[in-house]
Structure formats: structure tokens, C-alpha cells
Amino acid sequence: MKFNFIKYTAALLMSSIVFISCNNNDDDVVGVVATDFSGTFMQKDQMGRPAVNTVFVSSDNKDEFNNTIPSEQNAKFQSMFEANLKGLSPAYANEGDTNALGLDAAAFTGLLATDVLNVSLDGTTTFYDGENVLTGRALADDVITVELLLIFGGEDFMENPTLSNDNVDANDKDFLTSFPYLASPW
């Protein structure tokens, strides 16, 4: 019973990332204010890969994770990521279980614990296109579904099908072919 609650809570958290609201009220803009870059600035949040920080970093560790430079995150947080992954996903219930990338829980969470968005400098830039994986992120990439598949889908993306898709298959409007590429608001 507790495992099902955790599993459904994780799926709810991951899928809630896709539900965001925007305010297109430009009436609040009074004038252009110059940004003041003097002083001391601190990093407050990291989100190289959407939803990863949200789901795998325990609430007591959010501030520490967000203020840790990526090169130190794996050593500090991989074991917590692995424990949380095994607690959430039945696809990693048995020793030796892997995801579709062939990564077991330790290797996969080692990859996730360093919260950066990798970018291929000489190949396809995509989150996942069936062949290339985590080589960047194209605007139309279905990032949340890819993450759900890698977390819950098992070796062949077929395990736990109800947890492996956010069922949002496309943007509500086509992306533009030139900068700024994002579709205009409704």
C-alpha cells in the first residue's frame, strides 16, 4: 500500500511539471529598469533536466543541492537519488534491473545526480529520439515522457505503462521556424 502511494505520488509530481500557467499581463510593466549587477549573487535553484531535482532531491536537501556546483553533485547526492529511485520505481526492484539505456539504478542515478543539460557539439541535439539520448534538448522534445520512460519503463520501455507517459504528445501550437521559435500566446 505504501509503495503504491509513493509510486502514484511520484507520477503525480512528474506529470504536474507539465501544468504551468502564464500571465500575459503587460499592464504591470511600468518602465524599463536597468539591472544592477553589483553586489553578491547566490545560486538558488538548479534544473538542468526538468523534474529531476523536483523528484529525486529530498526536501531536507533542496537548498544544499541547489547550491552545490554540478561537479560535486554526484559524490554528494547519488546515493540519495538511488534510494529515491528504488523507492519510486518497480522497474528497479531487483538487483541487475536496468532501464532502456542499459543503466542500472546506480549508474542511472549517477548520471541524474549531476544536474546539467548535456549538449552534443557535433551530433544531433535531442533529449531522446530513439537513437540519441541526452545529447541536448530540442524545443519539441517530450522531456517528461522520456524521463518517465527511463524511470519507470524498464529495459524495453514496456514495464509500468501507466507510469511511463505523461500523455502530452505535442505543443498546443506549432513552433515557429525562426527566432524566437516559441509559438505566440493563444
Q: List SSEs in N-to-C order.
A: HHHHHH
Q: How many helices in DSSP terms? A: 6
How large is the radius of gyration? 18 Å
- The fraction of residues assigned to DSSP E strands is under 5%
Shape: globular
Estimated helix fraction: 25-40%
The helix/strand class is: mainly alpha
Average predicted local confidence, pLDDT: 83
Report the end-to-end length measured between terminal Cα atoms: 42 Å
Protein name: DUF4331 family protein
Keywords: Signal
How is this structure best described in words?
The longest helix has 19 residues. About 3% of the residues have low confidence. Helix content is 34%, strand content 0%. The radius of gyration is 18 Å and the shape is globular. By secondary structure, the protein is an all-alpha fold. Pfam families: DUF4331 (PF14224). Keywords: Signal. This is DUF4331 family protein.
Any key phrases for this structure?
single chain; 186 residues; mainly alpha; 6 helices; 0% strand
Task: Provide a concise account of the structure shown.
With 186 residues, this protein is an all-alpha fold. 34% of the residues lie in helices and 0% in strands. Mean pLDDT is 83; it is low at 17-22.
Which helices and strands, and how do they pair?
Elements: H1 2-16, H2 52-56, H3 62-66, H4 70-88, H5 105-113, H6 143-152
